Amino acid sequence: MSGVQTGTIRTNIPARMDRLPWSRWHWLVVIGLGTVWILDGLEVTIVGSIASRLTEKGSGISITESQIGIAAGVYVAGACLGALFFGYLTDRLGRKKLFMVTLAVYLVATVLTAFSMNPMWFFVCRFFTGAGVGGEYAAINSAIDELIPARVRGRVDLIINGSFWLGTAFGAAVSVFLLNENYFAKDVGWRIAFGLGAILGIGILFVRKNVPESPRWLFIHGREKGAERIVRDIESQVEESTDERLPKADDSDDYLTIQQRKTIGFGEIAKTAWQRYPKRFVLGLSMFIGQAFLYNAVFFTFALVLTKIMKVSDSTAPWYLIPLAIGNFAGPLLLGRLFDTIGRRVMITLTYVGSGLLLVLTGVLFDNGSLSATTLTAMWCLVFFFASAGASAAYLTVSEIFPMETRAMAIAFFYAVGTGLGGIIGPILFGKFIEQGRHQVVVGYYIGAGLMIAAGLVAMFLAVNAEQRSLEDVAEPLTAQDPEARTADRADGAREIDLRDGRRSDRDDDYVGSSPVGSSMRRYH
């Protein structure tokens, strides 16, 4: 194992985090970390909605239709590279540092985009905006899964990822208003659109400051005292808000023996995914490629299908996105709890295969001319009701089926591969299909449906039954010692996390931050 060893500990922190009843503190985590997906949905939708305005004379920026396409590709490239870069740093430097940094990168880049005067400035800003958003996926998903109790991890994760579509609906509605020249000048409205995302992001930044570092990350990286203080404060807040005493987690099965490391090398991370969990690697790859191709292909071109083939006016087309967004959010919202009750394997298979079969049906009806613009949108809503839950489950899956030390990098890798393939090949392929007419578009639908069905069948055989199980039970940390070593540790008196002697380690304080933890922790000093 690479990295500098700092000692061996026995800890029951994961069990204590998983036993917590839902409380106001968990809502803080959801609001502080999860709402960034609304920003992502807003960002993507606004750019798509204002694309035609940017190419008009008098927009304040001289940019062509082809350069708009380049900007979309630059954004995708930034998101992929940002996910990999910030994902690696998230596993190395901590969740809190990176979910603050990535949001800051997004905020600066999106504000600067509003001041674009030429294509190159616009491209650079789009790259760094994508990098910030891509980094958010790794930092946020890993932090959320490590802070949310196991029994509700599935539904919470799905709903948070599905909130992307709330931003999409808002972006579609606000774009129509901001692009109306009766209210805003042609060179002003689209700039304000980018400013709205920044305003929302600043609000999230202030809330996010109150979210502590992941205790799981802390105790593995040699900062067990900081982890203990954070968990004790969380327990205190939960008891206060629920007015109930928490049960103790003192059973021997609640403890985990960890050989701490300050750093985990990238080689060890890669080796884990390729050699230790090859079936899980195939599962994650198939899920991400399937959903990424389907989403990027259909959503990057849905307006063209409506305007070029269904003859919907350019001014009306954006309104069709709102019911689509609602359907996409309704899927995770209504189906999310079933991932924790019926189980991951059944629900992933159902959502992937179900959405694929519904897309096949949509293609058949579209091909024979049975659908109007309204009924086509209704079919898309039904398809993505299931596909959205499946796509959100992809992020949940790769977050929980790999060891904690590799969690952020696993999310980043699969996101980058899926987005890179689906975000580049899908739109290009569908764009050519649209030029060739209705029948070729149907071929594209069948390809997307086939990838989704294939991923669902892979899940049927390879999905991990992670519902209501501790993360450490689903994938044992790389730093965890084997049973024989644990027995020896107990005999040799391996350290257990305990701060009742009142001592403190100053080096742990950096990971607490200005949070509710910091305000009430003083009683443990």
Strand content: under 5%
Give a quick account of the main beta sheet: strands, pairing sense, barrel closure.
3 strands, mixed
Q: Order the strands across the largest sheet as they lie in space.
A: 2-1-3
How many beta-strand segments?
3
Helix proportion of residues, in percent? over 70%
Query: What's the pLDDT, averaged over the residues?
Result: 81
Q: Please provide the ordered H/E string of secondary-structure elements.
A: EHHHHHHHHHHHEHHHHHHHHHHHEH
| Spans where pLDDT lies below 50 across 5 or more residues | 483-525
Supply the number of helical segments: 23
Quick one: overall form? Answer: globular
- CA radius of gyration is 24 Å
* SS-based class: mainly alpha
What does this entry look like structurally?
The chain has helices spanning 13-18, 24-34, 36-54, 65-93, 95-113, 119-147, 153-162, 164-178, 189-208, 215-220, 224-242, 266-276, 278-299, 302-309, 321-335, 338-341, 344-367, 373-400, 407-436, 438-462, 471-474, 483-492, 516-520, and strands at 5-11, 256-261, 495-496. It has 525 residues and is mainly alpha-helical.
